[in-house]
Design brief:
heterodimer, A: 467 residues, alpha/beta, Alkaline Phosphatase, subunit A, 7-stranded mixed beta sheet, two-stranded parallel ribbon, 11 strands, 10% strand, globular, B: 565 residues, mainly alpha, 5-stranded mixed beta sheet, two-stranded antiparallel ribbon, 28 helices, 6% strand, elongated, signal (chain B), DUF1588 (chain B), DUF1595 (chain B), Cellulose-binding domain protein (chain B), DUF1587 (chain B)
């Protein structure tokens, strides 16, 4: 019984305990025994990850130097130096979100949908307007793996000023259909692997129960209105998700152990480097075992206020640093933090590159990993020149070695803290390019344009990054 | 049933007076509502037309379904199956919308892992319920007395009725028993194997997981639907005692015993006397005050910081709340401006007070620290501070949003959100810095003038809430400020008095109570008269929180819904 106002958190999996990092599976882990050929002729499936870190970039230290195939890493991308061939970098393009609430509009870069329900009398309030790319891909791949997608995060910190679903979630299946991030590594392990390590000799009974309750769902559907029917459909999807897990044969691969780490330290004391490593490892396991082909990683949400102690020189909030001119110099906390964030992203990519598949390729060869943020220049909340970094060869779908696509060079007048320009194009072109790696017939992503031709959707894939 | 509404409505008009202990001449139901017990109140009949003839401006929020909140699920499991089962009940995480999980659980679609989480929980609960069968046997004795196949039917009918908050059809009973029989065979004929999966079947039904509130259409106001008796007692029970209603109460409601507002009031008063009520009401304050979000502080600057100290901070606030609402049953504004508080050893050290004799002692606040009530509690001060320093903005914003319901608008898109350089080589207090960067620049000041000045008055308290007269840089703190209608405020105690006297305080608490209690936002346009009436009720009841709850649950704001959403 709760004895005070401190709300309980209900943790799944083992509690407390020591920190046990998990090791990658052995080379023979991924046993695609039937040697299925996928639609693109390869023996390994394509995978997708969205990776997010809040509060934008310092464009003059991020945007690569040079364009096309001959480009060099700028300062803030140096942690990715060993992976450069796997990178396609898109800069200088415009996020065409139709409306603006600082930070919220930037989330459109992952979906092509402007946010909905602006304000609602609550100030900084909005809900996501449509599905994010990961959810669209999950839908394309429906039924091919036991788990449609896994949604993970590192920091538990949420922006104190922002309300609605837009800012607090990286993945959305639609309006008011967020896929919240799991920030507890032990719970993430449970969600991915728990049902496969437990005995399932009662599987038939449990499937029968799930089938049986659908009758009550139908009865409710007939009594309720449109909105609740959307939610009941989601409930049925959730039943189907468990049915798929129960029906799946045990994966023929080494399953990792519960990392036994719950990330329950207070905000400001979180061990985000460790959490990121555990979550990245779990994603690699899940991909390698083909339990799912889609993941999202919300490393730190936009406008959140934690102090990130693992950044050199940091003793104030990451959000405040993004707006405080005194923290922008070389070697100052916001500059250091940009490198820290990219190191965390590099950890995931490196693990993927080092995780071999049965045919001798590695996970990064077969994946597309989109990294971006809720702003281009975080200090002014700009969504002009909104950078998108797409890592991975995508099973031959993307250029390798990768290119730097940039329609126009960054203005020489720009420095961090000012509005960047010039800008053109449409960030959603990148989304459609990625989507076509999963659905070659996809011809549109995001919202439809309105009568004035405004909207963040796209029907023109960015061919420059496609193989 | 169709006679209920006019009678009920008539009673609503009276009850808002009754609940204030002011006689309302001419009203039916002037009798002492406490004279009725909760099974005999609520006589139907009368037949005289009500005073509402249709065509009013009132439109209730949509009806529909909302998912049980985490604590409601756990408490209900513990009620049905005992504490061991409650301890292993792990529901899915709730997502908040508009500040409340009650609204999130009403509007946000379930995650794809929702049913997996409920299933894992149900399997654990069923094992615990069978290993500790006394609570379940109290509801369905046959699980101990005559564990045979007929008992599966009894469990489906009786426990199903309790869990689904309605009687089951024969078909539904048959579907449940079918699972039980199949599981019994699977378990080699073991009764408990059948029982386990029967319980899982009942708990996995959407009829258990979701609370359905569709009501019955008012014949003269077609956009208004009165919650049915079972819907009313469910909504009431979840709000006031934190779990679903008992089978006895449900059956009584099905028999029509809670179709009148008088009977609802009687029941609500009985529930407020229930030992579980304070905890249930604290669930509201947990979300309203949001004190779970206290972030860690720099241990080098604040050596007293610890997780245990944070727990003590929150407990202090809980103890003051419970004292005002339950022990004293007095003006809620005392929570804002009390001259006393509760401390344990850790808080006494933080506040510079003598160590208490007991684990927790009630003490007078030290006059020289100018503290008063919750706004100078360490909990709220620490919640709205950074890792290594105060935030006058966040402290002011918290007061505006949560106690005055003033929504700070987002800045215009073209505003420069960057902090200007402070003057070089000049040491400044935080206040001076904020006056320079937030209040001298017009585009910033338009919003920050509503936040930072309130925070200035709390500058005498450091990020942990300890008293200070000087900042770490040695500069003296100046807490004197001016803000709008508050005029000059010289201290935290002045600020508390201003907030307590502000008429928006009571209205804001009412609005938040509505959001939590029914899972939807209040609507100042379509519910204007009803809201005004509830605001007035709270004021006339001298801001006693228990009376606000009574006035709320007996109002149309609580008893009606619109068309299902």
């Amino acid at each position: 019984m709760r004895k005070h106002l401190k709300r309980r958190t209900f943790l799944r999996g083992a509690l407390g305990g020591g920190i046990a990092s998990i090791a990658l599976p052995a080379l023979d882990a991924m046993m695609n025994l039937e040697q299925t050929a996928f639609a693109d002729g390869s023996s390994q499936p394509r995978r997708y990850i969205s990776w997010f870190r809040g509060n934008g970039f310092m464009l003059d230290r991020f945007e690569p130097i040079g364009v096309g195939p001959d480009w060099q890493l700028n300062d803030h991308m140096q942690p990715l130096a060993a992976l450069k061939d796997y990178l396609n970098v898109v800069t200088g393009t415009t996020n065409r979100a139709k409306d603006q609430i600082t930070h919220h509009e930037g989330m459109t870069v992952f979906s092509g949908y402007s946010f909905a329900d602006k304000g609602q009398g609550q100030g900084f309030f909005s809900n996501a307007g449509g599905p994010t790319l990961d959810a669209v891909i999950s839908e394309v791949l429906a039924g091919q793996t036991p788990i449609p997608g896994v949604h993970l995060g590192a920091s538990k910190a949420q922006s104190p000023a922002d309300e609605g679903t837009t800012m607090h979630n990286l993945s959305h299946r639609g309006h008011l259909q967020p896929n919240p991030a799991i920030t507890n590594p032990s719970a993430a392990w449970q969600a991915l692997f728990g049902s496969f390590v437990q005995p399932k000799d009662d599987r038939e009974l449990r499937l029968h129960i799930l089938d049986s309750v659908k009758g009550e769902v139908s009865t409710l559907q007939s009594k309720l209105g449109t909105e609740d029917n959307v939610r009941l459909e989601a409930h049925l999807d959730s039943i189907a998700a468990l049915e798929a897990k129960l029906s799946a044969a045990a994966p023929v691969c080494d399953l990792p152990n519960d990392p036994m780490f719950t990330n329950d330290e207070s905000i400001n004391n979180e061990q985000l480097t460790l959490v990121n490593e555990l979550m990245s490892d779990l994603i690699c396991y899940a991909f390698n075992c083909d339990l799912t082909r889609v993941a999202t990683m919300l490393f730190l949400e936009g406008a959140a206020e934690p102090t990130l102690n693992e950044i050199v020189g940091s003793n104030s909030s990451w959000h405040e640093y993004s707006h405080n001119v005194q923290s922008w110099a070389l070697g100052a906390p916001f500059d250091n933090g940009q490198i820290y964030m990219m190191e965390r992203f590099a950890y995931l990519l490196t693990k993927m590159r080092d995780t071999m598949e049965l045919d001798g390729t590695n996970l990064l060869d077969n994946s597309m990993v989109l990294m971006s943020s809720d702003a281009s220049d975080g200090s002014v909340h700009s969504i002009r020149r909104h950078p998108m970094l797409v890592a991975g060869h995508g099973g031959g779908h993307l250029k390798y070695p990768g290119v730097h696509y940039q329609p126009e060079a960054l203005s020489g007048n720009y420095s961090y803290g000012s509005h960047p320009g010039p800008t053109s194009g449409n960030t959603s072109d990148v989304l459609l390019a990625i989507l076509q790696g999963f659905d070659r017939n996809a011809s549109w992503v995001g919202e439809q344009l309105n009568g004035q031709g405004e909207g963040a959707g796209s029907g023109t894939p960015l061919a420059d990054i496609m193989a | 049933m169709n006679l209920r509404k006019p009678l009920a409505l008539n009673a609503v008009r009276c009850l808002s007076a009754l609940s204030l202990f002011v006689a309302a001449p001419g009203c039916k139901g002037d009798d002492d509502p406490m004279a009725d017990d909760d099974t005999s109140a609520g006589t139907e009949g009368g037949g005289e037309s009500g005073d509402e003839t249709g065509g009013d401006d009132y439109t209730p929020p949509p009806g529909g379904m909302r998912r049980l909140l985490d604590y409601q699920y756990i408490n209900t499991i513990a009620y049905m199956f005992g504490p061991q089962a409650g301890a292993v009940a792990i529901p899915p995480a709730d997502q908040s919308l508009y500040g409340y999980t009650a609204i999130g659980n009403s509007l946000i679609s379930p995650s794809l892992d929702l049913v997996e989480t409920y299933e894992a929980s149900a399997l654990q609960i069923a094992d615990a319920a069978i290993a500790n069968p006394n609570t379940l046997a109290g509801i369905v004795p046959c699980v101990k007395d005559s564990p045979d196949q007929a008992c599966y039917t009894t469990v489906a009918q009786t426990l199903g009725h309790l869990a689904w908050r309605r009687p089951l059809t024969d078909d539904e009973v048959a579907r449940i028993v079918e699972i039980a029989l199949e599981a019994q065979v699977w378990g080699g004929g073991d009764f408990n194997a059948g029982l386990k999966y029967e319980l899982v079947r009942i708990l996995l039904s959407p009829d258990f997981i979701y609370v359905v509130e569709t009501g019955e259409q008012d014949p003269s106001e077609p956009e208004e639907y009165w919650l049915t008796g079972p819907e009313v007692v469910t909504r009431l029970s979840l709000l006031l005692i934190g779990r679903a209603p008992s089978l006895t109460l449900l059956k009584s409601a099905e028999a029509g015993n809670y179709d009148s507002v008088e009977s609802v009031e009687t029941l609500a008063r009985a529930m407020l006397n229930d030992e579980r009520a304070p905890e249930a009401v604290s669930e509201f304050f947990a979300e309203y005050l949001a004190l779970e979000e206290i972030s860690a502080k720099n241990p080098a600057s604040f050596p007293l910081y610890s997780d245990a100290l944070v727990d003590s901070m929150v407990e202090e606030t809980e103890l003051l709340l419970r004292d005002v609402i339950w022990t004293q049953d007095t003006d809620f504004r005392d929570f804002i401006e009390a001259d006393y508080t509760f401390v344990d050893e850790r808080l006494a050290e933080l506040y510079g007070l003598p160590a208490p004799d007991n684990a927790w002692d009630q003490v007078m606040l030290p006059a020289e620290q100018a503290r008063a009530g919750f706004l100078s509690h360490a909990s709220v001060l620490a919640r709205n501070s950074h890792y290594d320093g105060n935030s006058t903005t966040r402290r002011g914003l918290y007061i505006q949003q949560r106690f005055l319901c003033y929504a700070i608008p987002p800045p215009p898109p073209d505003v420069n959100p960057n902090l200007p350089d402070p003057p070089a080589n000049t040491q400044m207090t935080l206040r001076e810095l904020m006056e320079t960067v937030h209040l001298e620049v017009d585009s910033c000041a338009v919003c920050h003038t509503h936040m930072d000045p309130l925070g200035f008055t709390l500058e005498n308290y450091d990020p942990l809430g300890a008293w200070r007269t000087h900042e770490p840089n040695g500069l003296p703190v100046d807490p004197v400020t001016e803000y709008a209608d508050f005029g000059q405020i010289g201290s935290a105690a002045d600020l508390a008095a201003s907030v307590a006297m502000d008429p928006r305080l009571g209205q804001c608490i009412v609005n938040n109570m509505i959001r939590f209690g029914r899972g939807s936002l209040e609507n100042p346009t379509r519910e204007s008269a009803e809201l005004q009436e509830l605001y007035a009720s709270f004021e006339t009841a001298n801001y006693r929180f228990q009376e606000l709850l009574i006035a709320f649950v007996t109002s149309e704001l609580f008893l009606q819904v619109g068309e299902p959403k």
